[in-house]
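Late entry, written up from scratch paper. The run itself happened at the end of the previous shift, but nothing got recorded in the book at the time, so transcribing now.
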Amino acid sequence: MAFRKLLHRLTASDAALDRERLRQFCSDVPGVLPIGDAQARQEITVAGEITSLRIVPRAGTPSLEATVNDGSGSLVVVWTGRRNIPGVAPGKRLVLSGRGAPQGTAGRLTVFNPRYELL
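Output as recorded:
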């Protein structure tokens, strides 16, 4: 068993190992749902890591957009009227709760103004 794990770590890519570590970390947080299992229009609580952050103008006011990934999937988080939030940066981990909405042609899950806690 230990040999199999060692062989997997030696042959797997760094990105795959990072996804596995992130998925394991997020599954250890109590009361969260994997992002890959999250459904649109449902109240969700997920944990993940911010992979990208950008400021997007929406209707004349800025919005802070973050892509959050937990190893099983990703979603977009939008804080309207904000240019920055202290502590929210790429690489930071957080737990967030809100109602997901499908956005864009691909129907990517987006959560607007979620409740969040930095980990």
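The chain has one domain: 2-118.
(Scratch paper discarded after transcription.)
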